[in-house]
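During the practical work, I worked with a single protein chain and the tokens that describe its fold, as given directly below.
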Amino acid sequence: MKIESKKIVIDFTSGILFYELSQKFNMNFKNLFVPNSFYYALDMAIGKADEEKKSQFKLIVNEKDVIPINYPEGYHTNRINYLNDLKAWFQRNTTKILPKERIGLIRGLKNMDNVPQLFEYFIDTILLVQREGYVLVSEDLAYRHKNGFTNAISTEKYLISCFNEFKDVFYEYLLSKKYIGL
């Protein structure tokens, strides 16, 4: 697959990594696309982080345990700043698209009010990737394995294809971060 001639659709898994690589190694990413609903999902994450900023701890309750988690000083502020910086990077480096294919799909669904925002984002991403000339760069196995896409590649393959001169540097970085995509 020739990446250079494709429109690259990214998701959270690849987008966060590209953001970090661009910050650390001054890598410039081009021809990147996300669905409009991506920004709604990101805004929801920022809003949730803002709502949680008053809390200094949380409890995780499961079948066996109650696990207290104490947030360090500045955690919420740092998280909100990170998410806002991430959003700004996406705004500078991606083109957002409203998949028109979604219109017919949504008309067929009876109660869209109960569909979670992240599910809408997932649907929109799938609709974009099904277009001719588009390819998804993602580590999210739900896209590649469940839907049988042939036009989806891992971030590793994308980076090697488009940034081979950074290969050693980004491999070292990915390993230091214990990046799951490797």
